[in-house]
Specification:
The complex is a heterodimer. By secondary structure, chain A is of the alpha/beta class. In chain A, 32% of the residues lie in helices and 20% in strands. In chain B, helix 1 crosses helix 12 and helix 7 packs parallel to helix 10. The chains are: A alpha/beta, B alpha/beta. Chains A and B meet through strand 6, helix 16 and helix 17 of A and helix 2, helix 3, helix 5 and helix 6 of B.
Chain lengths: 402, 338
Amino acid sequence: MKKFCVIQLGTLSDLLQTKRLILSLCRGQADVHLCVPAPFASAASYLYPDVTLHLIDTSTEFVEDSLRVFFSENHFAAVYNLHDSKKSLVLASMMSVDRTYGHWEKQGRSFRSQWLTCNSRVQGRKRFLNTMDVWAHLVSLPVPSHTVNPIAMRKGGGIGIVLRDEFGRVLPIAVLAGCINAVCTASRETDVVLFGESADEPLVTELLPFLKSSVAAKTVIRCFESTFEEDAELIASLDMLVTPESPLMHLAAHLGTPVNAFFHSSAWCMENGPYGLGHKVWQSDVACAPCVPVKDCAENFVCMHVFGEEKLQRFLAGKIDSEYPEFVTGYVSMLDEVGVTYMPVFGTEKHAEERLAFRGIASEFLGITKISKTVLAGRENFYAEQDWLMPNCLVAEEEEDV
Amino acid sequence: MFSSMKKFLIVPPLDGSSACVVTGCEEALKRLGHTVVLFDSSAWFSMCSALQRLPIGVQQQDVFSGRAIDLIAQSILAVVECQDIEYVLAFPQSPLNSSIRKEMQKQDITTVLWMTEEYGTFPFWRKLVEGYDVVATIQHEPFISELSVLGHTPVYLPFAANGVCCTPVSTHTAAEDLIVVLGDASDELANVLTKHIDRGMVLWGDGWDAYEQFVPYYQGSLGRLTRSERKALYRDAAVIVNLHSPDIGSGDAVNLETFAIAACGGFQLVDKRMLMEGMFSYEELVIFESAEELSEQLTEFVDDRNSRLEYARNAQKLVLAKHTYDHRMKTLLSELTS
């Protein structure tokens, strides 16, 4: 039985976004091991019950003796190290392995899979690949994208609202309330569950008066400590999860619960949108988006305020006018041969054609398409000359993924 | 055809690969009366090799590698300018970049790529072809049409043989029981070749060392052989099993070895490729379409020296008549002047 190891020391969202890779490795009854940060133990065992977990203390570079012994006694056909943090590299370097993918170090030199290098050259709005697919394609022919998550369908349990995004940011209260009211109007649903932390109670107190009385009356507040499994059970019963980019958004996609996401600031749906069919993303399209996460925004978080525009809220409420507002693009998720992508259904975004071209190039790189018909001549920077000229300049053989 | 002599710069691959092709082009162009300047790509190899060993991060590597290639490409441009070069002929592994090629185009230098890689296994081709006026390719459709769409002048230019490699087949003294296998391993091929291992076998290519029975006979990558070693190997083997791909019958382009073995007067069993039709017939090559057929052919020909010599003679005659670098360069030159 082939033995594989995935080192995923990123965020909880990253752990959820590793699903396609792990499903691909688990084919053929392989023995799959997964290294995760210790706080994600319950989430990892819930999401990936068939893999062997190794819990890692990411606060130190020191590797526990028990883990050292395990790695020294086991040989892996391949290791997939998904991040280049020091601890992640240390773990990858101590394994006996035929081949490493992702990130690794050797004699002080850093190495990275060619696939990741090529993808790293595409920045800003041209980013075209979901992180789930970036990692999955480290495996040759990963499981088909439609088999990763179920098609999202309403389950009858009302609407869930996630208050904070991946980085703890929350929409301005009036904007958030407007979005909730509009979405509840559109879906004729007034049962609402608010997902937050215990510290969010003042926020909820501030929010409730802004909600329609019919909505506020049927709102359940869930601002307390809960396990990953409890959250999953509740989200699996919902009609929809209204959320910014967040781990619960990826969990909803995992469970087949429709996501209605508001992407602002650094969130870029092409890169981190909900995976699978049946999801919507409202992507902030102001000039500076997507950005890098900052506490103080020179533009006064204009990317969040655009969701409060009356025109947009009419669309959210299901009143489709002939004139669509600027600065927000409405997408629905769809699948192609590479993975998940998002089709604009309200508004347009000027880099769409370039992203389509990049998907064609990626498809060629992965050997899925022989000659893609979507590629534009001479306008891409996915490759650089060093990709094919430099690897052959090594005299001795290197353990590398080319 | 050309009415006057032209001046070419040939930029060989940085890694020293395709040496036979480079020499073949150089000698053929000279025989056709043109002036050829050969850029010394190999002199830069050690610089690139040093960069490939620096203990640095991946982003620095990308920056330094890009600069190194740009420096070499700038040097090539300087040679082009100083030597009044009219045509630059390069290959996929030649140390040029798209910005320098575009600069050459601005200066009315005609840039020519002989795309000696198959596009399906070389996805970088989209970046590679940027800045080339003419792209000669060992494959035909759909690649030719795609190159046209992208604004290049495509030329179908299969590999060729070097006429000077030829020695009369009748003088060959093949070791009767030596089977030479050239190409990459697969379970299916390993299975059938095992049956013939007792006849005497050497194997070149990737993956054969994974099979215990072949380990004593495995020689390594074919790229390790020098030109003269290849010539001797092709000439003196009883049977050469020339494998394009472990996935038999799947591809189109005909490899360099098919031409080289024929030119050297060797006898080959070769897997079917779509583009063999029109170039070779069943008079010159013994073509197999499955591993089982290869096994049958090995049994049939390994003890039949007369048939082998006849095939070898026919193949050599055909290659000398139609598939030398002189023929290829004439095809290319007529495209350059049309």
